[in-house]
């Protein structure tokens, strides 16, 4: 992925990406994430995977909070669940800033308000061939990034993650 970084922007991306891998029941998943994001352990069941924006940090030595934003996550929380369920039922998501139907594993992509000061851009899908319904591969970021080059960069990182997303049944 080639992205020109605005020197006045807050989000600076690495020129390389790493592979995120995990297992859920009998399905292995993987996707790429820009190297400016680092993996942190999530302590919430509804966030099985979280990669936080922390360029230059090493999660083994640096104290990185899982609630740091921006972050790339695999999310199964109420917002993801209700967005996916609404899209299945009516083909739209009430309150969405943007919503676009997709074909393939991801059923839609959408931008929504998330919490008071945050936005979420998500790809909604049923993970593991429906075994884990109403899941989102998403980026969560501060509202102040909306309409900026930083938002474009973060969505480009998520787009790369979505394009590289794979599931393998074991």
Task: Describe the overall structure.
Helix content is 17%, strand content 39%. The protein has 170 residues and is of the alpha+beta class. The protein has one domain (21-164): Protein Transport Mog1p, Chain A (3-Layer(aba) Sandwich), CATH 3.40.1000. The model is unreliable at 1-7 (pLDDT under 50).
Question: What is shown here, in short?
Answer:
The chain has 170 residues and is of the alpha+beta class. The protein contains two helices and ten strands.
Name some characteristics of this structure.
170 residues; 2 helices; seven-stranded antiparallel beta sheet; alpha+beta; Protein Transport Mog1p, Chain A; 10 strands; disordered N terminus; three-stranded antiparallel beta sheet
What is the fold's blueprint, element by element?
Blueprint: E1 17-24, E2 27-34, E3 37-40, E4 49-53, E5 71-75, H1 78-90, E6 98-101, E7 108-114, E8 118-127, E9 132-142, H2 149-164, E10 166-169
Antiparallel strand pairs: 1-2, 2-10, 3-4, 4-5, 5-9, 6-7, 7-8, 8-9
